[in-house]
Automatic annotation (TrEMBL):
GO terms for biological process: inositol metabolic process; signal transduction. Mg(2+) 1 binds at E76, L95, D96, D218. Its cofactor is Mg(2+). Pfam families: Inositol_P (PF00459). The lineage of its organism: Bacteria, Bacillati, Actinomycetota, Actinomycetes, Streptosporangiales. GO terms for molecular function: inositol monophosphate 1-phosphatase activity; metal ion binding. Mg(2+) 2 binds at D93. It comes from Actinomadura verrucosospora. This is Inositol monophosphatase/fructose-1,6-bisphosphatase family protein.
Length: 276
């Protein structure tokens, strides 16, 4: 199991414990559904919603609201579509990588993050099939950053995740980026589970990510995981990227890598692709 747990007694310990318990419970249910025939409906030309997706969300949201009734909730399957008027808001993606799960591809995750005053303070990503767990909390103000995550992997030896939306324009961008990176790195992947991909970047199992017009529900918590592990997340202007509630239902673009040099190299490719 790959884990990055909050420090015992640290901030948000109670919330992390409850969220992790909810994710584990939903994960146990999802394991019973993987590979089974599951009713699905299409959401647009390429995305699907599964009955397992909806049930996993119901279980997670019920557990969170029971313990923290004053907190708002935004979840992938609705029904709320605007940022709640609450100091604390849970963001829940009950099955990141639904298409993978629905077609028997074991690359998916449960993503839960907690925002306070529209900024993330807690993030967890749980792989229900391989039972990998990743948890991070926002360090207190003034605390030194995490230690550097180790030697840089050069681009030519890197495995890079590309993330985009399901639109026709997004697919064109993905093709253009794959072509730009082709031959420059070891491997380019489009695994369609961005929360899990960011968790893997945080622990070095993936080297970096380029995200083009993603969704805050999919990536907000994962970017905190990368930063908490000492990695780097940059917006397309080259400034540090910090998820914020104002980004909800707006396209989110950034690059992420464990090493700043690799992040800035990926940034140049992202800018080139964005320029057309």
């Amino acid at each position: 199991m790959s884990e990055s747990q909050p420090r015992p007694g640290g901030a948000w310990e109670a919330q992390a414990a409850v969220a992790l318990g909810c994710a584990r419970s939903a994960g146990a249910y999802l394991r019973t559904q993987f590979g089974a025939a599951s009713p699905r409906r299409y959401q647009g030309a390429h995305d699907v919603q599964l009955a397992a997706d909806v049930e996993a969300q119901r279980r997670i949201v019920a557990g969170l609201t029971e313990r923290f009734p004053g907190y708002g909730v935004l979840a992938e399957e609705g029904p709320v579509r605007r940022w709640p008027d609450a100091e604390h808001v849970w963001l829940v993606d009950p099955l990141d990588g639904t298409n993978n799960f629905g077609y028997g591809i074991a690359h998916c995750a449960i993503s839960i993050s907690l925002f306070r005053r529209r900024r993330p303070v807690l993030a967890l990503v749980v792989d229900p099939l391989l039972r990998r767990e990743f948890v991070a909390v926002e360090p207190p103000s003034g605390e030194p950053p995490a230690a550097p995550p180790g030697p840089c992997v050069p681009l030519r030896r890197s495995t890079i995740s590309l993330v985009t939306n399901y639109s026709a324009a997004g697919r064109v961008w993905g093709d253009r980026m794959s072509e730009a990176l082709g031959g420059k790195c070891k491997r380019v992947t489009s695994l369609w589970a961005p929360a899990l991909d960011l968790a893997l970047v945080s622990c070095g199992q993936l080297d970096g990510m380029i995200c083009h017009e993603g969704d805050l529900l999919d990536v907000g918590g994962g970017t905190l995981l990368v930063r908490a592990a000492g990695g780097h997340v940059l917006d397309l202007s080259g400034e540090p990227f910090h998820a914020h509630g104002s980004m909800y239902r707006r396209p989110v673009s950034f690059v992420a890598a464990r090493d700043e040099r690799l992040a800035r190299e990926l940034l140049e490719y992202a800018r080139t692709a964005a320029a057309g």
